[in-house]
Amino acid sequence: MWNPATHRTDNRSENEVSMAKDHHTALDAHWRAANYLAAGQIYLLANPLLTEPLRPEHIKPRLLGHWGTSPGLNLVHTHLNRLIKERDLEALCVWGPGHGGPAVLANSWIEGSYTETYPDVTRDAEGMARLFRQFSFPGGVPSHVAPETPGSIHEGGELGYSLAHAYGAAFDNPDLLVACVIGDGEAETGPLAASWHSGKFLDPVHDGAVLPILHLNGYKIANPTLLSRIPESELDALLRGYGHEPLHVSGDDPRAVHRDLAAALDRAVDRITEVQREARSSGTRGARPAWPVIVLRTPKGWTGPKSVDGDPVEGTWRAHQVPLAGVRDNPEHLRQLEDWLRSYRPEELFDADGRPTPEVLSCVPEGDRRLGATPHANGGLLTRTLPLRPLENFAVAVDKPGTALHEPTRVLGKMLAKVMADTAERRDFRVMGADETESNRLGALYTATGKAWQAETLPTDEHLAPDGRVMEVLSEHLCQGWLEGYLLTGRHGLFSSYEAFVHIVDSMVNQHIKWLKTSRALPWRAPVPSLNYLLTSHVWRQDHNGFSHQDPGFVDHVLNKSPEAVRVYLPPDANTLLSVAEHALLSRDYVNVIVAGKQPCFDWLTLEQARAHCARGAGVWEWAGTDDGLRDPDVVLACAGDVPTQEVLAAAALLREHLPELTVRVVNVVDIARMLPREEHPHGMADFEYDALFTRDKPVIFAYHGYPWLIHRLAYRRAGHAHLHVRGYKEAGTTTTPFDMVVRNDLDRYRLVMDVIDRVPDLSVRATALRQLMADHRTRHHAWIREHGTDLPEVADWSWPY
């Protein structure tokens, strides 16, 4: 029976005793086999079945990997197998502990999914030897659970994201149980701490369930962990405060732990089934349920060496990596390793050919019920193309460029609302944002769905809905983690963020890009929907917030990453934003970063023109310049971003007015990677393309949305780089007028005209008066805004005059 006072299983019922007798032997055999294989991967180069005494040449020359967490992960995997098979569950497991690779690889090999994925690693002695040799070995596989690992959607190298990934996988997956093993080191991270709130967004009608398993083995690399050292009553209160029902299992006696963990898992799944049945049968949701969480305490490095050279190992931080480090050179360590490996009695677990025995396999599920074979961990197999309506339904009319204004993201919001409406039944599209959906002008989404919310509601609340598919929480980590889990299991989405604060997930997107890069090289992994960022409320329009909200550097960060996986777009108006968004939402295996303003912005291109321009990625706007294309221009005015585009067009108009004899070419760049050489990025331009657009020897004045040195870095190898002058954001920000922001950073139209005069040969002498006039305009601007609080009328009321 379950004792709620101690949260442990004792005074067992007859059924529980019978279950323990029926399953203990098989569960223990499977667990011992997995432990043997995990240890073997760390140590053995040959002699995988110990058919002869262990010798130094059987040991790897470099001992790499992590033993400490492996026995606990093997225990969980063993018991999930039993649960899945008995109940015919559709399940996925997210393995959070950072170095659990040996355990998950071992279990995948036992169940056969590894051999199906990698046929050369056969499920016999020869394949076992390959499994051992390849682990943390040149040309082999990493020590983490990684894209190469069947059944995984989570890279374990960086900690903190497992639980958010698990919930992302569960959203809109009503039949899926997502187990999530959380290491106690990982539990100390900020993202993981916030992730406990995810249950407050889980809809028992339309979503699957997440079963967190907090594995407390007591130590990180060299220090104890907080949650393992606080009193159990305090930990219990913490988890209950998060909205969970904790079920505690602990001990170092395998028989008792097998018994208690099996009972806790059964109780947890019974509770989950009960919650879902009640919600789905009635169609209504009562009080928010307390979802179960299992707290599993077992020794670090359990079943490994208890001590080495007189120092305690099992149950201490010394078990974290390689408990016996000197095996090749130290005969005592070699003897101890052989005793350790033989303690699992491999002769009982594998037959003479090295195949797992029927007893080891008796609790293993079959087919795609196996954790290593679930299609949910290879989400591209389940992906359906988004139903996007023709862009003509949403495009704005442009009779003349630069006269009418629209808020680009508001226009995009109508398109996204239709996507949301058209996926209402299949439920495979979500939009994430940190309390910014309405602020970013995407409020049209609420005509199709509400904001996911399972907590208390008040009469003054708007758009909250238990089945909503807009997800808002003031944690960029959660938005990112949820969306990654959602995408990797085959669904689609968009992350809308204030530009400055998307940096909070810099490290998370690093890991996702690495995942995509590696997955692209694995033919068995089907392409998954791209991770799409919409960055708005950007650096140039922070009217309410100022300097703290001004940072355009996420683009720089992303463009440092694997070029085959990253794309960056800066659409200059509403129609180009629609075209870019359509492309991004239909793409696979990319991280797409779209930077677009939410404030009123001039419409420059018709939809047809926008599509052609976005397909090119960069091109000449003939109507904006005085370049006839028959000869090189005197100067190139280039731009990327909505505000820089407006300032370049205004500068071009001033030059046409005051220096009509000057030949000016206007180039707009939508796809920033076009600035790179073709050999450095799939979207890059060959030198002849770049030279045709920007010339080889004419001055190029480039107004860029972000930090100016990025453009220099991308173009430094071009023949004309010495003639390239870039204006952009220089960390000169505050709460001020829109035009004053560009003046403060020398990106304004008057400064750009001055740059042209300074760089076109002989123009500095002929156009001295014009340069002085431009400088005077800047001086007058400073005085005007301080007196009136608004921009100069000729700036505020400007439109394209030609």
TrEMBL record:
PROSITE patterns: PHOSPHOKETOLASE_1 (PS60002), PHOSPHOKETOLASE_2 (PS60003). The keyword Kinase does not apply. It is an enzyme of class 4 (lyase). Residues 7-21 have a biased composition (Basic and acidic residues). It comes from the Bacteria. Keywords: Lyase, Thiamine pyrophosphate. GO terms for molecular function: aldehyde-lyase activity; magnesium ion binding. Its cofactor is thiamine diphosphate. Residues 1-21 are annotated as: Disordered. GO terms for biological process: carbohydrate metabolic process. Pfam families: XFP, XFP_C, XFP_N. CDD domains: TPP_PK. Residues 598-800 form the Xylulose 5-phosphate/Fructose 6-phosphate phosphoketolase C-terminal domain. Residues 25-381 form the Xylulose 5-phosphate/Fructose 6-phosphate phosphoketolase N-terminal domain. Its EC number is 4.1.2.-. Belongs to the XFP family. This is Probable phosphoketolase. It comes from Streptomyces aurantiacus JA 4570. The lineage of its organism: Bacteria, Bacillati, Actinomycetota, Actinomycetes, Kitasatosporales.
